[in-house]
Amino acid sequence: MTVAVIDELFVRVRSTAFFLRFTLFTRILLAAGFIPTGLVKLLGQRFTTLPDTTPIGAFFESMYQTGLFWNFIGAVQVVAGVLLLTRRHAHLGALLFLPVIASINAINLALGFGLSTIITSLMLLAASYLCCWDYDRFRSLFTTGPFEPRHRIPTQTLDRWERLGFILFAISLLAFFGSTRDLVPGPVSRLAVPTGVAAGVFTLLRFSVVGRRRGREHPASSPGTRAAGRPGR
């Protein structure tokens, strides 16, 4: 596949309103999965209660006993998760996330961590997708050729209600995963679940209904999209 073909594929994906929402959803999921687990390590707490007589328990106990390195791993995970939630630096979060989750996935595969291996494999795939979403930011690492379809890259936007829905969904998900690590009180997590579900359903329905309406009014353009020289994030 030539660079020109990849450029064109990138523009097509970035021109589709659905993929912007899917990207935001993916960023939130990865951040919610990384920040609470990273905080556990950053605060110097054990990650698992498995006994050190098992291979998995022994591995994590050895990592925990390193002290400063355990805290460093947690700090990297928290920073990657926080960056994923920002608009300007989300691509750096994805780039930082990629080698970390690749290492975790390799460990899970080596130790036979069961269901966790499937989850980390999906997270690795998601992190790879997010790096591809910001392909234009990393393109210069692979080629110095001009980006020919530059003038056709759209900047996609969310309306204020969609933005609010994503924010509530992110907060609710962080609260829920935080409660699984005893970082958030139980009552808060019980409130977070219905709030997150409601926010997610509302955002999905708004995109479906408003997007369909805009499509009928402006059949030549995608919902929430405007022409620009640099893609939206």
Description:
This protein is mainly α and 233 residues long. The chain contains nine helices and two strands; from the N terminus they run αααααααβααβ. The protein has helices at 3-14, 17-42, 55-65, 68-84, 90-111, 115-133, 135-138, 160-180, 186-217; strands spanning 154-156, 225-227. The protein has a two-stranded antiparallel ribbon. α4 (68-84) crosses α5 (90-111) and α8 runs antiparallel to α9. The chain is globular.
Give the gist of this structure.
With 233 residues, the chain is mostly helical.
What key attributes describe this structure?
233 residues; two-stranded antiparallel ribbon; 3% strand; globular
Shape: globular
Indicate the structural class.
mainly alpha
Average pLDDT metric? 85
* H/E element sequence: HHHHHHHEHHE
Distance between the termini: 25 Å
Give me the Rg, rounded.
Answer: 20 Å
Strand content: under 5%
Q: Profile the largest sheet.
A: 2 strands, antiparallel
Poorly predicted runs: 217-232
**Number of E-type strands:** 2
Helicity, in percent? over 70%
- Provide the spatial order of strands within the biggest beta sheet: 1-2
Count up the helices: 9
